[in-house]
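#structure-requests
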Amino acid sequence: MHEIIAHRHRFRALLSRVRQGAPLSTAIAHPCDELAVAAAVEAAESGLITPIFVGPAAKMRAAAEHAGVELAPYRVVDVPHSHAAAAQAVALVKRGEARLLMKGSLHTDELLHEVCVDGGLRTDRRLSHVYLVDVPHCQRLLLVTDAAINIAPKLMDKRDIIQNAIDLAHIIGIERPKVAVLSAVETINPALPSTVDAAALCKMAERRQIIGGVVDGPLAFDNAIDALAAREKGIASAVAGAADILVAPDLESGNMLAKQLSFLAGAEAAGVVMGAKVPIILSSRADAPRARIASCAVAVLVAQAAGVPALAMAGG
């Protein structure tokens, strides 16, 4: 099982925690290209999910034919366009017919709009995306956030972003994750608002407005990751050089960091959206199928931790 990503030992260990038994039904919004359809079917064949394909049926079946996979074993919900697919996928989750939500080949904003409308899938927590990144030569999984949803998060947004990442860290087995709030420097400089936010977030953690982890910042990327760089700069910190969670100051920097790790350092990445009523699999259309499968596995772990029941859907 999961042979496609078995060469990554940390992801292999993580995936081994996905219990055997009935997969989780997953509403896939507008999977109308080969990658989206093939990844969903492969995740189903791996025992992770039971997909419900929501979109224009003719387009989805054409994509499946080009990908060399069959949709016949799975439920297909025919709707006319991507907006209707997003709305119907969210509705399936709200009715309890699906336990996970997955983005197909539509824009992220289009799907999240339906998630966030009144009566959708929002909670009191702000939504944020967390990448789990397995970097060669790094001794631990890294969590990078937020690289996909919050463009210019304000202080209280960052509080939720950190809490979401800590919650995910607990689920994957990091009991007390070390959280580095990143900036360009390690000292507080009012000219760099991210350093001021970092200082406030540290105090919020001291006052238990953020719980379950150790928060420090501002830290630059080098001394957040590398213990020698932290020592050379004289930084005394439980987080410096040992960070599990890297909190980017904005989406641009987070996105560039995650993609640099993937494309230059050969990292494997899996991502999930936290903070909604169910986990949301928000893979990029540029992701390899193995990354999409890994993201499905992480979402299943999150759902299992929340006590979301398994429900196998078939036919249609």
